[in-house]
Design a protein that fits this description.
Layout (H helix, E strand, L loop, with lengths): L4 H24 L14 H10 L1 H20 L19
Helix pairs in contact: 1-2, 1-3, 2-3
Length: 92
């Protein structure tokens, strides 16, 4: 039993992140490719690809998710927050 502890932990991490990814892909309607969201390239496709090849699919999901959410906001690249405030703080 002790020899398989690491394998169980890794399996639980993969299973947990796969379930979360599937839920998030469905909730945000993230397609797996540039085609519109559907049953063929939606949450089910993310689930099966994550189960079969988690090490590549899980990071790719974050790339696709950020692309889709940026497109929905209407900006190509979000601007970073300013390093310094634009107006100086009032002196007390």
């Amino acid at each position: 039993m002790e020899d398989y502890t690491l394998a169980y932990i890794i399996g639980l991490v993969v299973l947990g992140t796969t379930i979360w990814l599937t839920y998030d892909a469905h909730a945000n309607r993230i397609p797996i490719n540039k085609q519109p969201y559907s049953g063929n390239n939606g949450a089910a496709a993310w689930f099966f690809s994550c189960v079969l090849l988690w090490i590549a699919t899980f990071p790719y999901y974050f790339v696709r998710r950020s692309q889709v959410l940026r497109e929905r906001q209407g900006t190509a690249v979000p601007s970073p927050p300013p390093l310094y405030p634009t107006k100086p703080a009032p002196r007390l």
